[in-house]
Automatic annotation (TrEMBL):
Protein name in the entry: Membrane dipeptidase
Organismal lineage: Bacteria, Pseudomonadati, Pseudomonadota, Gammaproteobacteria, Lysobacterales
EC number in record: 3.4.13.19
Natural source organism: Pseudoxanthomonas sacheonensis
EC main group: hydrolase
Alphabetized Gene3D superfamilies for the sequence: L27 domain (1.10.287.650), Metal-dependent hydrolases (3.20.20.140)
Signal peptide residues on this chain, from the entry's feature table: 1-19
One term of GO molecular function: dipeptidase activity
InterPro entries: Metal_Hydrolase, Pept_M19
Record keywords: Dipeptidase, Hydrolase, Protease, Signal
The keyword Secreted belongs to this UniProt entry's keyword annotation: no
């Protein structure tokens, strides 16, 4: 998780250059009336941090937190997919057991958040649930998994996760795993796509009605998911190769394939995937040493987090790297809209997982995207679809496919 923060080359004390960008009353009203969902909220990583409370307002610069209830309300974010993220560790018996335990604890943390604040959050299992919850003025909590490694020791756990609310499954993170290849494993490809175990998992996800997510997976995994899945698939947080070529991004031909399958690409706001960031080995080594020093992020106190950020800022001063801004983000979003069409695009900005750019620092800034989309000529209907309609359509298709069996 934490590795995401520095390897993107974030300049941690951001410039707020566009913080005052105005949002017109028309955009504000459209945004408020739409169901606004983000497909990749890494916020569950914060839920067990000592003294951290989702109901309180936090500060991104000081506290590494981009999503909480006050800022969700301010930014008109109705909810989305709350992620069970597991860092890929050793793939032996002990490593798999550790991943299994980690996944279950993260799932419990999400369910504990809902149970503790039933007036504010509600678990969503279907597209209809999301619409109902949004109407009731509560936040929508869909549950997803980023990296299927918690299932490596026993893939049949997927049925238990499904019963407990899992509705989206991403195959890998930044390394290969037992189910398939990652787009960014330094060792290269291991399976030429999905492994046999990965193929079986795809079938099982289709049978249960779990949406498949190809973000982080290799291009071959993407192609095989499109081919094998009986239901549409998504990219929950991915940007465009044609704007900035990076193994973690996707090319136009594949964006078209995804759209033809009825799927949706949710555009990522992760700086290191939006613009070129120079590789500075000394910077990486120093950031890595800090990471080792502080240990697991979700266990750190607010004071420790703040000290960590100060230490990182010092490294940033020594080895500065550029950081993307809202214009860069919009370049990816508008390009993808042109290629996929507005029926096949959504937003998955990687909040609390390394996402956020200058001018779009946290979820309170989301109405700026609506303003920019209106300015680019997209209709109110298109914009409502981008914020949630397309995702919910895809979820209905996944559900229908499951029921057919
Ligand atoms: Zn990710």
């Amino acid at each position: 998780m934490i590795a995401k923060w520095w390897c993107a080359g974030l300049v941690l004390f951001s410039l707020h250059a566009q913080a005052d960008e105005t949002v017109s009353p028309r955009a504000r009203q459209l945004h408020e009336n739409a169901i606004v969902l983000d497909t990749h909220l890494d916020t569950p990583s914060n839920l067990h941090r000592p003294g951290w409370n989702i109901l309180e307002r936090h500060d991104q610069d000081g506290e590494f937190a981009q999503v909480d209830l006050p800022r969700m309300k301010q930014g008109g974010l109705d909810g989305g997919f709350w992620v069970i993220y597991t860092a890929q560790d050793k793939r032996d018996e002990a490593g798999n057991r550790q991943a299994r335990d980690h996944g279950l604890v993260r799932l419990a943390a999400i369910r504990e958040m809902i149970a503790a604040h039933p007036q504010d959050f509600e678990l969503a299992l279907t597209a209809d649930d999301a619409a109902r919850i949004e109407k009731a003025g509560k936040r929508v909590v869909f549950i997803s998994m980023e990296n299927a490694s918690p299932l490596a020791s026993d893939p049949s756990l997927l049925t238990a996760y499904h019963k407990l609310g899992l509705r989206m499954l991403g195959i890998t993170h930044t390394s290969n795993n037992d189910f398939g290849d990652s787009s960014t494993d330094p060792a290269g490809h291991e399976w030429n796509g999905l492994s046999d175990k990965g193929r079986a998992l795809v079938q099982e996800a289709n049978r249960l009605g779990i949406l498949l997510d190809a973000s982080h997976a290799s291009d071959q995994v993407f192609d095989q998911l499109v081919e094998l899945s009986k239901a549409p698939i998504v990219l929950s947080h991915t940007s465009a190769d044609a704007v900035y070529e990076h193994p973690r991004n996707i090319d136009d031909a594949r964006i078209r394939k995804l759209a033809a399958k009825g799927g949706v690409i949710h555009v990522n706001a992760y700086s290191g995937y939006l613009i070129p960031v120079p590789k500075i080995p000394q910077r990486d080594a120093e950031m890595e040493a800090l990471e080792k020093h502080y240990g697991e992020y979700s266990k750190l106190s607010p004071a420790q987090i703040q000290q960590w950020r100060r230490d990182q800022a010092e490294i940033d001063r020594k080895y500065p790297v550029p950081r993307a801004n809202l214009d860069d983000y919009m370049r990816h979003l508008l390009h993808i809209l042109k290629v996929a069409g507005p029926e096949h695009v959504g937003i998955g900005a990687d909040w609390d997982g390394g996402g956020g750019v200058t001018g779009l620092e946290d979820v309170s800034a989301l109405p700026k995207i609506t303003e920019r989309l209106l300015a680019a000529g997209y209709s109110e209907r298109d914009i409502r679809n981008i914020w949630g309609g397309n995702l919910l359509r895809t979820m209905r298709a996944v559900q229908t496919t499951a029921e057919k069996k």
